[in-house]
Structure formats: structure tokens, C-alpha cells
Design goal:
Layout lengths: L1 E6 L5 H9 L3 E6 L4 E2 L6 E2 L2 H8 L4 E2 L7 H8 L5 E5 L7 H4 L6 E5 L7 E2 L2 H7 L4 E8 L9 E8 L6 H25 L14 E2 L15 H10 L6 E5 L2 E11 L11 E4 L4 E4 L4 E9 L5 E2 H8 L7 E2 L5
Parallel strand pairs: 1-2, 1-6, 2-5, 6-7, 8-11
Antiparallel strand pairs: 3-4, 7-9, 9-10, 12-13, 12-18, 13-16, 14-15, 15-16, 16-17
């Protein structure tokens, strides 16, 4: 089939690469407009745009998908079907009507759980033990279309969101091509989502990284994993922000200790009491400093048992 691909970030790149390597023909790529990477920095290509240019695929970067001009540009690709993977904007109905076979989406969750912007992060934060990828029909409602295929992926108890994203991106790319192959041969069953089981994965905000030590150790550990590499979980120590980059659950030593209290210090970890259980902080990053091991934090900052990590925003 002739495919128009919609995507922007690194999650989408494996799907585009798999399509290019398949028997299908990627006739055009639609991606977000270029943006400067930082103040006074040159404009950089998105991972999807860079890959498209590498394979000499025509690229469109409309500021909006609602104008007749942008729709005409996409229509000119002459695609049979559209494939979406983390494009980054809501697609209007006028666009959904352009390809004769509509659009399908690579979504990084087992729908209907975790519809929305941040399914990978929210699955880890919630302590889910399994996630996956769903190939779904794109409709005007958020991630509400019928499901064409899905694959389950276990969530390791120590994995971070960026590592899980890479696994899901690869799995989703394979599943997408397999689904297109089946669609080319004939009708594919489209299973409606169970609306009674819907959960939403709200967009990640910087404030999500504020550690509440009154929560159980498992909750804080999942927060640290789920918000890596952005915005990262953080707390205040001696009046300055400290990012907690990695942690592990520890044997409880919380008797009589307020949440946030340092209960044990070693080269391996800075152990902190929580609302239920103890959490070992094994990689930290003091404000305006490089990431460092617990040993380097111990030797440089010289924390003491009984000192307190507090919330960035007081409760």
C-alpha cells in the first residue's frame, strides 16, 4: 500500500524505518515544524524528518492541519492509508477523510488503558506490571478508535520510561507492518474499546516530579522511574534541589522516623524513610551539578543520618 506517515519524536522513528524496509511504499511524511534546540542554537531536524530525508521521502511540515493548503499537500501524496506514531497534534476530521483507507495509529499502551499523551510514564508511575502496543483506528475522539491488533510487553520492576519507550517503539514498528500486511490481503477485524475500562494518561508536567515522601516507597520508586529522563523526580536537601535519578526498594528502617528522613548512609545508597517503607537513593544530582553515585554524594555533600529531604513544593 501507499502510506503517508505522521510522526515526530524518537518513538516514531522505528515505525518509519520498518515501513521503509517493508513492501509498502512510504509516499510522504508529515512531521512537526522545525524548532530551535535552545537559545541561539541552530534548528535541528526531528528524528522522523532526519530519517525521511535520509531515504529521500518527501516531507511536509504544516503549522496546522486545518487549512485547505495543508490538506491539499497531504492529498497530493496519493496515499492509500495514513499511519500515525506520536505525531504530536490532534488530527482533524477533514484529514481523517483524505486517505481512502483512513488512518491507523501506533499507541504505546494496551487500550483502553492509558489513552492520552503519556501512556508509558503513567503505566510505570501506576506500578503496572504489563503494558504493550495497540494498533488502532484513528477517530476524532482521543485514542478511542477500534483496535486492529495489540501486543503485550511486561514492565520490569526497575525499568525507566525512556528504556521502556525504546522497547515499545521497536515492538510497535513490527506490529504495525504486520497489521498493514493483513489489511492489504483483506478486511481486518476492528474491535471496539471497552469504554468502562478507560483510563487517561495526562500530559507530564514539571510539577509531577515533586517527591512526596509521605507516599509509600513503592510509589516514590515508580515516580522516579516513570519520570526519567524528564522532568525527573526531585526533592529539597539543605535548601537546594536534588534530582533523584535512580532508586531501589530497601529493607524498612522507619521506626519513629518522619517521611523524608535519612535513616542509613553507605557507599551504595542514601536510605530515606517514606510513608511506608524505606527507599535507597542510588544516583543523585545536586542542583547545578553533574549526576553522581550515592558514594560521591556521601563524600561530597556529607549528609547525616537524621537529616531531612523535603518536598520541592511544601504540602
Amino acid at each position: 500500500m501507499r502510506v503517508c506517515f505522521f510522526g515526530t519524536p524518537s518513538f516514531a522513528a522505528p515505525t518509519l524505518a520498518a515501513l521503509v524496509a517493508s513492501r509498502h511504499n512510504v509516499v510522504g511524511v508529515v512531521t512537526q515544524p522545525d524548532r530551535a534546540s535552545g537559545r541561539r542554537q541552530p534548528v535541528t531536524f526531528s528524528p522522523v524528518q532526519a530519517l525521511a530525508l535520509q531515504h529521500n521521502i518527501p516531507v511536509a511540515q504544516p503549522a496546522t492541519l486545518k487549512t485547505p493548503e495543508s490538506l491539499d499537500a497531504i492529498r497530493a501524496f496519493g496515499a492509500d492509508i495514513g499511519v500515525v506514531a506520536a505525531y504530536g497534534k490532534i488530527l482533524p476530521q477533514a484529514l481523517l477523510d483524505v486517505p481512502p483507507r483512513g488512518l491507523i495509529n501506533v499507541h504505546a499502551s494496551l487500550l483502553p488503558r492509558w489513552r492520552g499523551a503519556a501512556p508509558i510514564h503513567r503505566a510505570i508511575q501506576a506500578g503496572d506490571t504489563v503494558t504493550g502496543v495497540t494498533i488502532m483506528r484513528v477517530v476524532l475522539a482521543l485514542d478511542a478508535g477500534a483496535m486492529l491488533s495489540r501486543i503485550e510487553i511486561p514492565i520490569d520492576a526497575e525499568i525507566t520510561s525512556d528504556a521502556l519507550e525504546r522497547i515499545l517503539a521497536t515492538a510497535g514498528a513490527t506490529l504495525l507492518v504486520e497489521t498493514l500486511d493483513r489489511m492489504e490481503l483483506g478486511p481486518v477485524e476492528e474491535v471496539p474499546q471497552d469504554e468502562s475500562r478507560v483510563t487517561y494518561a495526562a500530559k507530564i508536567q514539571r510539577a509531577d516530579g515533586d517527591i512526596d515522601w509521605a507516599q509509600p516507597a513503592t510509589h516514590v520508586h515508580n515516580q522516579i522511574r516513570g519520570l526519567h529522563p524528564w522532568p525527573m523526580a526531585s526533592a529539597i536537601f539543605r535548601g537546594k534541589r536534588v534530582i533523584v535519578r535512580a532508586s531501589r526498594l530497601a529493607e524498612p528502617e522507619t521506626a519513629g522516623r518522619a517521611p523524608g528522613t535519612i535513616v542509613r548512609i553507605s557507599d551504595a545508597a542514601i536510605s530515606v524513610a517514606t510513608g511506608a517503607g524505606t527507599l535507597d537513593l542510588i544516583e543523585l544530582q545536586p542542583e547545578s551539578r553533574a549526576p553522581q553515585s550515592a558514594r560521591d554524594f556521601k563524600n561530597g555533600v556529607q549528609p547525616k543520618v537524621g537529616e531531612l529531604f523535603s518536598r520541592v513544593t511544601p504540602a
